[in-house]
Amino acid sequence: MNPSASPPSDGRPGPGRRRTPGTLVAALWVPFATVVGVVTSWQVQRIDSEWVDRQQAACRHLPFPTAEHVAAWTGPALGISAVVVCVLLALRFRRRHGVRLGGTGWGLVAYIGAWPAVLTIPLELFLLYATYSPVDSGPVLGDCG
Questions:
Q1: pLDDT on residue 136
Q2: Among 36, 38, 30, which residue's Cα sits nearest to residue 119?
Q3: CB within 8 A of 49, min separation 6: which ones?
C-alpha cells in the first residue's frame, strides 16, 4: 500500500506527508512580511518629519532622502508578497495534501497572518503615493534671517 496515495483527511502529516522546511518558512513569512511591511510604511512618516526638521534647522532646502523612497516601496512589496505566499501555500496544501489552508497548523498561521496584510495594503499604497505626490507649500523654513 502506498502511504501517499490516501492522505489523512485531518490535516496532520501522515507517513506520506512530512512538513518541509520550505513550508515552515513560507508559513512564517506571511505574518513576518505583514508586520514588517506596516512598520516600514510607518517609517516613511518618521523619515519625512526628520527631513523637514533638518531643513528648518539648516534654513535651506535639502535633497529628498532616498531612505524614504526605499521605505515607501518596501511596505507594499512586503504586504503584497505576504498575500501571494499565502495563496501559493494554500494551493500547495490543496494540491499535495488535499486539505484546506486552515486545516494545518502552519497553514492557519499563514491564513491568519494574511488578513491583516490584505487590510493594510491600501495604507501602504497610500503612503507610497504620498511619498511621490508634490507638496504644495513645502516645508516652512521659518525665520532664517
A1: 52
A2: 38
A3: none
